[in-house]
Amino acid sequence: MPTRRRGKLAYKILFWFLLISLIPMGVVGYYLINVSQQSLHNETLTMQGSLAVGFSDTVDKYVATFRNVMTETASLDDFTSMNPAKQQQYLNRILQIHLAVLELSVLNGKGVETLRVGRFLGPNPELRDFSREDLFQSAVGPKGQYVGRLERFQGLYPTVTVSVPILDAHAQPARVAGVLAARISLNPLSTMLSMEFPSTGSSQAAVVAPDGFLIAHSDPKEIYRPDARLSDDVLRVVTTQASERGSGDMALADGRRMLASFAQSRDLGWIVYVQQPVETANQSADQMRSQIVKFFLIVALFMVLFSLAMANHITQPIRILKEAADRLGRGQFEDLPEVVATNDEIGDLAQTFLGMSDSLKEKTGELIHAKQELEKFTKFLEKRVDARTRELRSAQDELIKKERLAAIGQMASVVGHEIRNPLAVINNSIYFIKTKLSTGQEPDPKIAKHIKIIESEIQQANGIINEILTYSRQRDLKPERVQLNTWLEELLSVYPFPPHITLEKQFDPSSVSVEIDTTEVQQAIRNLIGNGIEVMPPPKGGKITIRTAIPEPGWVRIDIGDAGGGIPPDVLDKIFAPFFTTKARGTGLGLAVVRKVVDRHKGRVEVESKVGVGTTFMLYLPTVV
User: With bands split at pLDDT 50, 70 and 90, how would you rate the model's confidence at 6?
Assistant: First the structure.
């Protein structure tokens, strides 16, 4: 039956002491923190609510000030006479005294503008008709005034339109002679908010209309945006409340929690909104929590030291015995700690342990010796098996390759001989038929067409035989030292490029020499050029690019590129395999010959291709000094 693993006795004593001493203290501290946090929470909401109510009165007074100024002006005798010159003097004086007034208009009894002055108007501003708009209808109606039409001046600055009636006091009864309207900037409200709630603090405040129009904000960057609005989650809360004021917690869409308060102005119906993060309101509670945690840590440290000191005397013999057992478990039979055999159960356990350690030491020595001998023999066998396996695999691969090439060579020789003889006879017969046809009258076009087809097929068959013989032929290299650029020029000058193909040469100016078998390398390059011509058929054609470069000292690179359709990525790794081809006709040995030639010259071949762009083959050959 497996023994149950027990913890250290000293840790158990430490655990129970900490449990008994810290749990009551933790419960009391947790209660105090919650009480203080709730008190601060309520006090913050009360203070925010008072600020919101106070600023809502300020907003009412701000608009009422301009409304009173306009009412007093509209009641002056000189003004009610509807003399434009007198009226313009009064309006200019209002603009000089009250900087927040941006524009003033005088409307006649029909709602048509007769005078218009403003800070940003030209010399002859356009006069407008307001007869059907609320600013005229409300001013001349029973209400006798109008406050509304929130807009953004120049697309940035919030403004409100205020209008009052112009009463003719001389008429009995008094009648409305016209309307005085003003466009007032609301920027001072944002200035007052930013002074009350500076950007360095965590609190923010805003004034918003019931339709969501942002009138003022403590952060100027928020109010001067063309699409300035509070977030949708805040608007949804403050504009859907049934009461005129309120406070409470609010969770934003981004996961933040806010202490929010709002108050609705009595006269205008605008809403003042104040918020601050819950974390800021809870700073004092967090500080108290930090102090309690520090106290807890000090008490915990004291209890740890006290319990460890008390348990040291009780657990010291057991620790010594455990250390000795650990060393035995690691195979350390020398320099064991001195086990004290006390006159109790622990002493009896120590005596039993000492007898067991002597027996274990003897048995372990025998096992270690046997293991070392077995490991030596195993390593020796592994090395011999690995060496023999590599030799057999190498010999098998080489044998298979030689047998395959020998078989292909024999087959190619027989097939080439047996097929070329009939092809030569057919070719001679075609030549004879063409001679006979040319001596008589004009030959039948169909006969001439089929003769060309036969000649093309004979040429195709000869090409296939040449590819098979070239790949299977085993011959010694006949290297010659040539100047690469000059040799390439000679090769390209005699290559039969068709009319629809354009040749572009980009040779590196530094002249390098290579030792190559010119026959084999010429065959490899002609194969790559032929493949490029095949993928760019007429009438569109394309461009063959031949380029040389020196990628690193001791090497030269020959690039043969085309502008054809490219090679798909799933085919790119197979193109050098013998007999692999994607063409309808062909042996699939052209690129295999290229790889074989480059390998025989101790070089390498690489390919880059993009579908729809083209393909470039890069032949790396060693240079000679």
Answer: very low
Closest CA to 210 of 235, 229, 187: 235
pLDDT above 80 (res 111): yes
Does residue 257 form part of some domain? yes
Q: What is the CATH number of the domain that holds 247?
A: 3.30.450.20
Structure tokens at 414: 């027989």
SS3 sequence of 104-120: EEEEECCCEEEEEEECC
Fill in the amino acid letter for 546.
Answer: I
For 475-498, the pLDDT digits (tens) are 678 899 999 999 999 999 989 899
Residue 28 parent element (H or E): helix 9-74
User: Residue 389 corresponds to which tokens in the numbers above?
Assistant: 């396996």
Q: Please state the separation of Cα 132 from the chain's center in Å.
A: 55
CATH number of the domain encompassing residue 550: 3.30.565.10
- Phi then psi for 507, rounded to 5 degrees? -95, 140
Tokens 């356009």, residue? 126
Rounded to 5°, angle at Cα 250 from 248 and 251: 160
Dist CA 44 CA 58 (whole Å): 21
Beta strands in 144-256 (DSSP E): 146-153, 157-168, 175-185, 204-208, 214-217, 245-251
Distance CA(408)–CA(348), nearest Å, equals 86
The tokens describing 624, both together, are 């000679």
* Domain final residue, candidates 249, 281, 313: 281
Boundary of a domain, candidates 281, 297, 314? 281
Range of the domain at 575: 477-622
pLDDT range class, residue 336, cuts 50, 70, 90: low
CA–CA dist 47, 5 (Å, integer): 59
Cα–Cα distance measured from residue 326 to residue 344, given in angstroms and rounded to the nearest whole number:
22
Structural contact between residues 115 and 88, judged by C-beta atoms closer than 8 angstroms: yes
158 belongs to a structural domain: no
Give me the residue label for tokens 């067991």. Answer: 356
Rounded CA-CA distance 387/12 in Å is: 59
Residues 375, 369: Cα–Cα separation, whole Å: 10
Query: What does the DSSP 8-state code read for residue 624?
Result: B
Tell me if 84 is assigned to some domain. no
Q: CB burial class (10 A; 0-12, 13-18, 19+) of residue 333?
A: middle
Among 518, 531, 620, which residue's Cα sits nearest to residue 583? 531
Under 8 Å between Cβ of 324 and 357: yes
Alpha helix stretches (DSSP H) within 443-503: 445-472, 484-493
3-state DSSP call for residue 545?
A: strand
Q: Which residue has the tokens 């048509």?
A: 112
Number of domains in the chain: 2
> What b-and-e string marks burial along 397-406, b requiring 16 or more CB atoms within 10 Å of the CB?
eeeeeeeeee
Q: Side chain identity at 451, as an amino acid letter?
A: I
Residues 6+ apart with CB under 8 A from 13: 307, 310, 311
Tens of pLDDT, residue by residue over 506-552, are 999 887 999 999 988 998 898 899 889 988 988 888 999 999 999 99
Is 205 within a domain?
yes
